[in-house]
Amino acid sequence: MLRIAVPNKGSLSGPAAEMLHEAGYQQRRESKELRIVDPENEVEFFYLRPRDIAIYVSSGRLDIGITGRDLLIDSGADAEEILPLGFARSTFRFAAKPGTADHIEDLKGKTVATSYEGIVDKHLADRGVDASVVHLDGAVETAIELGVAEVIADVVETGTSLRNAGLEVFGEPIMKSEAIVIRRTGADADEPKVQQFLRRLQGVLVARTYVMMDYDCRVEQLEKAVALTPGLESPTVSPLHNEGWVAVRAMVPAKEAQRIMDDLYAIGARAILTTAIHACRL
């Protein structure tokens, strides 16, 4: 069986379980379950702390895992990213009291507090900046007020909590993270069960990104309509009973669907509708 590590809690856990369910895999019914077997799909799921997943996968005990890019890099584990999953996105930034620093070079000789010292150490070393890094678990905003550090490095979403603490971000982002699928570095990339698993997740990603659009249009407007809805290879075009009309079906990006519908209507297309895609293989 394919052995897969899945986050057991935190911001990665719910979306990961939802994506796996959409991909046709059984998921645990109780949060206390640490392992389940999906015999129909020949998969065994292990529910682990997100921070530990890269270690387990790098050891070879588990074949693949779902974790955050930040957690993979911070762990230093011998594992690699093979598929981004598009959820749990975050940005890591430096922050300090106004006037403390404007660029990463200004961190020389300073102390940086963070929960992700592996990421920060590497980022500073890659840029030749000699600064001290101190590890703190949980919220790090108070580290400056209490004199533990002059600078923090943390996840920034809206920046509200930083502003409330009298801090401001500076410099370029340290990194951008999201949920990813990982495997042990150098593992067989063409292993059939792994490839099937990746295809299923890619199918979920496509299904979430696109909708199916159907509409009728006059033959003389078909080229303009097809230019608006080219589909992936090309749209499906079928003649209608009424002469001079055709029915068109194509996949279109979900975020552009309303604009495309407006443009189609403007050139004379009618009976325009969209439907959700629940599964897909490209």
From TrEMBL:
Domain Histidine biosynthesis HisG C-terminal: 207-278
Pathway in which this enzyme or protein is active: Amino-acid biosynthesis; L-histidine biosynthesis; L-histidine from 5-phospho-alpha-D-ribose 1-diphosphate: step 1/9
Swiss-Prot/TrEMBL catalytic activity: 1-(5-phospho-beta-D-ribosyl)-ATP + diphosphate = 5-phospho-alpha-D-ribose 1-diphosphate + ATP
Domain ATP phosphoribosyltransferase catalytic: 49-203
Cofactors: Mg(2+)
Places the protein is found: Cytoplasm
Enzyme class, first EC level, given as a word: transferase
Chief location: cytoplasm
EC number: 2.4.2.17
Activity modulation: Feedback inhibited by histidine.
BP-aspect Gene Ontology terms: L-histidine biosynthetic process
Pfam families according to UniProt: HisG (PF01634), HisG_C (PF08029)
GO cellular component: cytoplasm
Keywords: Amino-acid biosynthesis, ATP-binding, Cytoplasm, Glycosyltransferase, Histidine biosynthesis, Magnesium, Metal-binding, Nucleotide-binding, Transferase
Molecular function via GO: ATP binding; ATP phosphoribosyltransferase activity; magnesium ion binding
Coiled coil feature spans: none
Signal peptide, first to last residue: none
Family of the protein in this entry: Belongs to the ATP phosphoribosyltransferase family. Long subfamily.
Role according to the record: Catalyzes the condensation of ATP and 5-phosphoribose 1-diphosphate to form N'-(5'-phosphoribosyl)-ATP (PR-ATP). Has a crucial role in the pathway because the rate of histidine biosynthesis seems to be controlled primarily by regulation of HisG enzymatic activity.
NCBIfam families reported for this sequence: hisG (TIGR00070), HisG_C-term (TIGR03455)
Protein's name according to its UniProt entry: ATP phosphoribosyltransferase
Organism: Streptomyces argyrophylli
